[in-house]
Specification:
Length: about 140
């Protein structure tokens, strides 16, 4: 099964120095490495943009851009955006605040029956209102 990897995990793996990760973060990057080696890790363009937008220094930006180019973006379709909008409405109707990118991530996971790998606790709240799962470490 494919796993849509959210921005915080890519950031831990490719932006942070491994020696500065706490044990939980080290475990998370090890899981990501297993997902990558098993060809299960997936990314979408908005996640790629979020990761790269956080880097102002040109050398670091170019290095990370090259690392991420090993992963093709999952193509997004009109239905993904429509499901994202419906998901936002559903979450808000039960009192859960959302962001556009988070809802797009949820929509991609819902439509493709993928799980979402993230350290962002908001996704646990979203998953109570929507039909996708948050990936649990291996």
């Amino acid at each position: 099964m494919s796993v849509l990897v959210d921005t915080p995990l890519w950031s831990l793996a490719y932006r942070r120095k491994q020696g500065r990760l706490n044990p939980e973060e080290s475990d998370a990057t090890a899981v990501l490495a297993k997902l990558i080696s098993g060809k299960r890790a997936r990314i979408i363009g908005p996640i790629r943009q979020e990761i790269l937008s956080g880097i102002a220094e040109p050398h670091s930006f170019n290095r990370l851009r090259e690392l991420l180019r090993a992963f093709d973006d999952e193509p997004l379709h009109m239905d993904d955006y429509e499901v994202a909008a419906q998901s936002a409405h559903r979450c808000r109707s039960v009192g859960i605040a959302t962001t556009s990118v988070d809802m797009l991530i949820c929509a991609v996971a819902i439509r493709r029956k993928w799980t979402v790998y993230t350290t962002d606790r908001d996704f646990h709240r979203y998953s109570r209102a929507l039909t996708f799962e948050v990936f649990q470490n291996l």
